[in-house]
Amino acid sequence: AGAGVESERQDVSPSKAVLLGTLARLEVDKAAHAENPSAAAAALQAAKDRFAEALTASTPPEQADLRLSFAAALARCTDPYLTEAHVVAAAECAQVLAGPDGSGTARAHAIMGASLAAHPDADPEQLAQAAAHFEQCAADDINSLVAHAAVLNRIGAIEPDDDKAVAAIEKAGELYRRAAAARPGDRLLQSLAAMTSVGEGVGE
């Protein structure tokens, strides 16, 4: 009877792959908060090593979630010397998007969008790619709507073509209003929706 209890306990505990995936994300967090580029690079390498171990230990059903959780952590790196984190994030998302069952597709697009938009000095082309990923996400998930709107606002601010700039800002306003409608108690969303619905002086 004792062995039966033990096997039941193992079934509910996280798998080795999940634990290694968590350790990989902790290393990414270390990289994101490192004090210098060499410390960041070392932590990022450790994260990649842990993640490779996690994939090796994983079962096929675990892999999409492992890849996307790792990619989401990498996408939050904003230091200019951590561009490799975004390359790795994109590669993991691409693996999920190429998967046969289509699971995780919306989440993969949302992470790709966030990753492309993570740099404060992203150029118009990167921001346009980010917006395209959020568009494909087609999610009513509030975080994705707000992130998509923020990207469109940035496009509106740096786009030299007035018509394109106005179109981007108007679309951002529409997304903020959708998010605000879904979360009526959120004051920040309500004020963003109100600001973007006026549209005074945009592009003039």
Word description of this protein:
It is a single chain. This protein has ten helices and no strands. The protein is mainly α and 204 residues long. The model is unreliable at 5-10 and 199-204 (pLDDT under 50). Helix 2 (16-32) runs parallel beside helix 4 (60-75) and helix 8 (142-158) packs antiparallel against helix 9. Helix content is 77%, strand content 0%. The longest helix has 21 residues, at 37-57.
Keywords, separated by commas or semicolons:
77% helix; 0% strand; mainly alpha; 204 residues
Which helices and strands occur, and which strands form pairs?
Elements: H1 2-12, H2 16-32, H3 37-57, H4 60-75, H5 83-97, H6 105-117, H7 124-137, H8 142-158, H9 162-182, H10 187-198
Instruction: Give me the number of helical elements.
Output: 10
Percentage beta strand: under 5%
Oligomerization state? single chain
Task: Indicate the mean pLDDT.
Answer: 85
Concise synopsis of the structure shown:
This protein has helices at 2-12, 16-32, 37-57, 60-75, 83-97, 105-117, 124-137, 142-158, 162-182, 187-198.
